[in-house]
Batch of 2 targets.
Target 1
Amino acid sequence: MNEALVKKDIRNIASTDLIKLLGEIGEPAFRAKQILEWLWAKSAHSFDDMTNLSKALREKLKEQFTINAVKVHQSQHSSDQTIKNTFSLYDSNIIEGVLIPTSDRMTACVSSQVGCSLTCKFCATGYMERKRNLDPAEIYDQVVLIDKQAKEKYNQPLTNIVYMGMGEPLLNYANVLKSIERITAEDGLNMAAKRITVSTAGIAKMIKKLGDDQVKFNLALSLHAANDKKRNEIMPINEQNSLKALAEALKYYFLKTKNPVTYEYIIFNNFNDSIQDAMELAKFCKHLPCKVNIIEYNPISFADFENAGEDKTEAFANYLKKQGIITNIRRSRGKDIDAACGQLAVKQQ
């Protein structure tokens, strides 16, 4: 039997519990700080790397614990310099994460679940089965590996992280927040929370919880339609989380955090690309300070949607801008390697 499936990953143990466990084997509390530094700040994936610990202690740690490190299984390079990674997990599951380089930033797009349970009709991951949540260390490892890639390939560190890969982050709420806590910690990656964006398909009660927890990172809502009939058609989650419920949750979130929200809007040909659709979106935007990212659709084999034409996309964006709404048209990256928005789905080898 795989020992990783039996032994507990030491990174999933609270620091207070680690101090207690070390005390039981006669080790001083400061050893816990040394171990945590190796695990997080130095991203050690082997107890043997922890050279300031005695060999005897390293052996004891090996006996009791494991480090379930995420590994790069395969990397694909796009013509636009985007890199899509397939990551292998300790239990043989596979996830994907993407490095998106632009002239002024290096962004890691990371996954929060193996698969997804939300069945959005336009998204490749939505056609996969949700197998399990990722733990905080597995999310953290993706960031570390993509940061290493950015430094090696482009001589620049990561500047931004988006939780927009496989899965719905707010259905893995506790682990996602713990991963961000580690990424932003001084003894972790020490990244600013404002450089992190968590994207949700829209779970009203969890958006309110983000407000209660007064999170410092950015929130993006995958909206894609601003009337319930259309949104129900492409995003079944809307049936339990109507636009009215989402608007109330987002207002509550803003009241608690004072963070504006980004609405992501994939524009589909002859579905949600009319001026009437833009009027509905503008009305929804009046609820709180926000901006809109209009995203071109990236075709997948499972669905019949097409990207809206250039003229309609520009007219749509111009209408929103005339209403005083900050609006950007986002061009897809990594489309040629299925790394673009909505295209992440592990293909069977």
Target 2
Amino acid sequence: MSQAPLQHRARKRFGQNFLRDPGIISRIVRAIGPAKSDRLIEIGPGQGALTEPLLDAGGALEVIELDRDLIPGLRVQFFNYPGFVIHEGDALKFDFNALKGDGPALRVVGNLPYNISTPLIVHLLGMGTAVQDMHFMLQKEVVERLAAEPGGTDWGRLSVMAQYYCQVEQLFIVPPEAFVPRPKVDSAIVRLTPHESLPHPADDPALLFELVKLAFGQRRKTLRNNLKGRVSAETLEALSIDPGRRPQTLSVAEYVMIANHVARLDAEQASAERGEP
């Protein structure tokens, strides 16, 4: 068993809300299902509410913590767990590929601060085979966007990016009273499992996400308007996509189809400019 956590005042600039509900904590750990052979990484352990049951279940855990004032308390709290390792730093800048090294893929978990959740998920999505799966507590609205389906109001740029790389499952809701201090919004647990092979591979993922960003630049406008200057209405029609559709009606497969077609057109134009046959 660990020692009791030291008292620490939650810091607004780090978006800290500490999980306190033991029932919710147990439910999260069951959803993760840690095993002794897992390479578990916890982002933002805070005061160790999830850390201890994860260590008890798996035997080893590495944590990434930005708040230097929390680290001494974590060292004291988990000093008797030989498999406990602390990495001091910003998860947004962390190289998870380097952390994986030649070892097994990482299982990443965390109660993510609302102010960094989206950029951190985007950062992790770019880590390829370094990540086996991710279990995060996020603002409920963010989880709904991650797990949305085309045609709904929640379907957007984040939905396309996440589902291009991962299978997304919204697991359960976590009410504000499970935290100290109590946030003003509901939270939810999401599981992100990277596809073993991409169902709709893009020839140029950077181009795909550039076009998705353009498409969702103004949600109420049509593809014809939002993609103007990059993808012509004639190009969309050639792909059997109505230029009058709005961005939230297109699936991941349709965005990939557009991007791959544009990539080929760009390659042909570049070749012609070089005078190649």
